[in-house]
Design goal:
alpha+beta, Chitinase A, domain 3, 2 domains, 7-stranded antiparallel β-sheet, 6-stranded antiparallel β-sheet, 5 helices
Length: 299
Amino acid sequence: MKVIQNWQRWSFAVSLIGLLIVQISCAPDPGEALNDRKRRENEDEIKAYITTNNLTAVKDDVTGLYIAKTKDVPTGQAPVVGDEVRFYFVQKRLDGLIVDSTETAAKKPGVVIIGAPSQGAITARLYNGLQLLKEGEQAIVLAPYDPTDNKSGNLLLPAYTPVRYDITVVSVRTEEEQIQDYLAAKGLTAAEKTASGLRFLLTKAYPDSALVKVGQTAKIKYKGTLLNGNQFDANADGTDFSVGTGAVIAAWDEALVKMREGEKATIVLPSSIGYGPQGKTPIPPYAPLVFDIEVVSAK
């Protein structure tokens, strides 16, 4: 009899626990409910702000941002994945308090690469707003709270705070346009362009020496920089690479077999034959690169 009573108690306890689990799993997520409520409140604040300031704003249904263009450039270049966007911005709360900005007076625009795995230091709201504008355009962007915003939840910008961005898009440049601008600025327009997009310019020739061949080990001196001049790698003593085996980036494999022992060249390359959309620390995603290369030997 005692065994039956114990079993009944155990069965009741298990049932009670199961019922509690069901109730918990079916209960609404209080965090999600709070986010929804705050989002609606933000929408009301933004709509009231638009009315009070007599703005003509259009809501983007995908991002939830409200865009009021103050300078419209219909023929401007729209940013797509891989493009470099340079911009100025001022971020304010709706009460007018400035929270953040670029160094507009010093003419130091912000820079972001569209589609990069990380948007860098800027907020998701600003990043999304930039993608809705074209080169040369200016706009007021009103943004409700974004839970992915990495700069909210502080004294200047408490969590769940809607914001205003005043944005100027300085330029939108594809990788190809960035490379063309660099070649023109550096006087390298005579560089050969190959089917891959590689630019190759021999800067020191040794026509009587042997061409580098696939499968050889070449000793190379080199310096690598970004288009802005920042150096990310160099080897002045020379290091050995296996040619044409994928041991180096595709641009190197292509360039080295155009060279002879003792020759020097400058190559400029798109990220498709460099480090691609992921980049490689400290090389950003979608970054065109410049290398100065010297073939010391090839065996």
